[in-house]
Amino acid sequence: MPIALRPRTKPPAERRDELMNAAERLFLARGFEGTTVEEITTGAEVAKGTFYLHFATKGDVLEALRERFVQGLLDAVTAAVAGQPRDDWRGRLAAWARACAIGYLDAASLHHLVFVAVPPPSREGMARNVLVDHLDDLIAAGAHGGAWTIEESGFTAVFLFNALHGVVNQAAAGEPTGDRGSLLRALEAHVFRAVGLRPEAG
Amino acid sequence: MPIALRPRTKPPAERRDELMNAAERLFLARGFEGTTVEEITTGAEVAKGTFYLHFATKGDVLEALRERFVQGLLDAVTAAVAGQPRDDWRGRLAAWARACAIGYLDAASLHHLVFVAVPPPSREGMARNVLVDHLDDLIAAGAHGGAWTIEESGFTAVFLFNALHGVVNQAAAGEPTGDRGSLLRALEAHVFRAVGLRPEAG
Amino acid sequence: MPIALRPRTKPPAERRDELMNAAERLFLARGFEGTTVEEITTGAEVAKGTFYLHFATKGDVLEALRERFVQGLLDAVTAAVAGQPRDDWRGRLAAWARACAIGYLDAASLHHLVFVAVPPPSREGMARNVLVDHLDDLIAAGAHGGAWTIEESGFTAVFLFNALHGVVNQAAAGEPTGDRGSLLRALEAHVFRAVGLRPEAG
Amino acid sequence: MPIALRPRTKPPAERRDELMNAAERLFLARGFEGTTVEEITTGAEVAKGTFYLHFATKGDVLEALRERFVQGLLDAVTAAVAGQPRDDWRGRLAAWARACAIGYLDAASLHHLVFVAVPPPSREGMARNVLVDHLDDLIAAGAHGGAWTIEESGFTAVFLFNALHGVVNQAAAGEPTGDRGSLLRALEAHVFRAVGLRPEAG
DNA sequence: AATGAATGAGCGTTCATTCAT
DNA sequence: CATGAATGAACGCTCATTCAT
């Protein structure tokens, strides 16, 4: 005989968000398999059953987390690049690297969780693809605009994306090679080098 | 009255290896959490209890797999670099990248399993560190020898290691940017660029 | 701003009937345990909570279904028997068997559901008892009237009732021993024999 | 960290039987859905997991119970009929009815459970069919041998089987129409009547 | 060394029921 | 009257680990 002690209704979107937030925090701390649905609902201060009012399975929250992450990062990167003059390829590339690195610095573990530790069912690295595609386009456009010479922009995009992801991850993992500022500077220099620009140039 | 159809006992090392092989195959195919101890022992053709004669917990096999992987890759990379003239830094760097890439191409999923999907308990990327340290030493030595100018060899090592890992992984993931040969050539060119060498030079 | 597309309220009796109809259909199709309250309310096109405005528990609908079934069948049987001359015992018995068989043929699964699959809490076969009692009375009256010789009318009533139920059920279960007409004829013959009448007699 | 307090091994068949016995008792007392696996294992004095060493699902015990019941009853009935002279059709029919009734009197609820309350997945009443078929053969053989005149032995078999089942069930349900002996006598008389024999004859 | 029956904590999911709106 | 979000006890099933043989 279930007794509803606190059946306080909230807008579905809000409840859903609270569940996602609790899940994100727990997945990050103990992994996906290491987190129980009950912990998530406890974290969101709802009853266990409420979880299934918003997600069909435990895996579904992860899916939702994935989408939320990708959208946020893509928005940030797009905005940063768009903030640069149309033909300043160097600036656009630097903006991309910087925005992406900052996004990862803020959410490296989350990215790891949703795309690496528990890869999406279909293809590995959907986010990777979305972001890499964006970078690919940028590099190809710069090459077309004469900013640099890159033969296979796809390869370079993958190369740079992973390099960036790695150094950021390393930094986030607590083995810092310096503060955030110097990280971004060093990253920029390496990105420039990778496309054949001289890092020190303005 | 049990009949010993096959030798019931084997040297511990051999049994252990068979269990590790079965575990590796299964972990790769179904993931760590998705594999049961019973499946491992069935795969190794021993009884369930035998597992615990060789490993204290399920996690321990993964640990052992990690160590086996790192040692093998490190040996290969070390040998490849040692095969180059002492002062041919360019050649040594290229050898490093090539050996490491080939090692990953041959065992990308295994690396993913033991270092990414189920990260080691203590610090993230022990293998990364062992291999990155090796690369770090190489870059620092080359800088010291005047082959290139790198201020923070550690950063560059992490940068390159992850870039390499990423492009190799992409290739392994079935979205090839070309065949293995062209992958290695493109990789070499980017590695050279990253340390400031001109790729096209011999 | 909710818009009342259909009248939101209905006479209680009507709502209750709709819920019972939906429940009957679902219970028949998927069993009592296999049907959820939500499916019933969906079937009746009302909200989940509305169910509890009409029934205290899920078991209560079944109870209501039971009563509805018994009443209907008893009415039909009573009417059929009453349609025969007062002293035509043979005719009355045949009418009983025929009406009861037809009632079951039309609702065999429903009977099975409410009296067999989920027997009433208290005594087994309330319907059986109501109908059996009716038959018992009829047989006893016929014996008293000299139509046949039956010592324990109760036993014979139970015997006949179950025999009837069984052959009808078999027919309903899709393993017909003939069409409905021949079923009723064969049944009549067996019923007559069971009370010691010669079947072929007029 | 599971601790085995009493890991006492028993022959699989014995454990399986103990689980089946516990399940039978509980299913009979509280129904299939009303019984939990844990109650079964508690009843059999084993741990929960042990259940799944012997049955894949909860439904599987019921299946096993079904088979055990049918086999036992069929054996008893066959033996009883075989104990009568080959051409004593009256005696064979009486033996059939008596053995079947006794079998049911001893296990009426069990029959109800395994064949009626939770019908087998495929067709309704496998036992019914097996036993009915047996009776069908007997009636047909008797008709062929001139013992009685029955046109549709299948119909009569179903009729008698269900009549028998009903009166026995009624008796078992605690509403006795007399003691076991008089039940069997009354049953015999009705069975004879149903095939057109005069009950009082020797 | 090897076995495999036994254990039991734990998990994801379901769903009858309640009640604030 | 009607709604449907919220509740939480309960259940079937899994599986890492133990240990008597």
TrEMBL record, chains A, B, C, D:
<dbReference type="Pfam" id="PF00440">
    <property type="entry name" value="TetR_N"/>
</dbReference>
<feature type="DNA-binding region" description="H-T-H motif">
    <location>
        <begin position="36"/>
        <end position="55"/>
    </location>
</feature>
<dbReference type="InterPro" id="IPR009057">
    <property type="entry name" value="Homeodomain-like_sf"/>
</dbReference>
<dbReference type="InterPro" id="IPR001647">
    <property type="entry name" value="HTH_TetR"/>
</dbReference>
<protein>
    <submittedName>
        <fullName>AcrR family transcriptional regulator</fullName>
    </submittedName>
</protein>
<keyword id="KW-0175">Coiled coil</keyword>
<feature type="domain" description="HTH tetR-type">
    <location>
        <begin position="13"/>
        <end position="73"/>
    </location>
</feature>
<dbReference type="InterPro" id="IPR050109">
    <property type="entry name" value="HTH-type_TetR-like_transc_reg"/>
</dbReference>
<dbReference type="InterPro" id="IPR023772">
    <property type="entry name" value="DNA-bd_HTH_TetR-type_CS"/>
</dbReference>
<keyword id="KW-0238">DNA-binding</keyword>
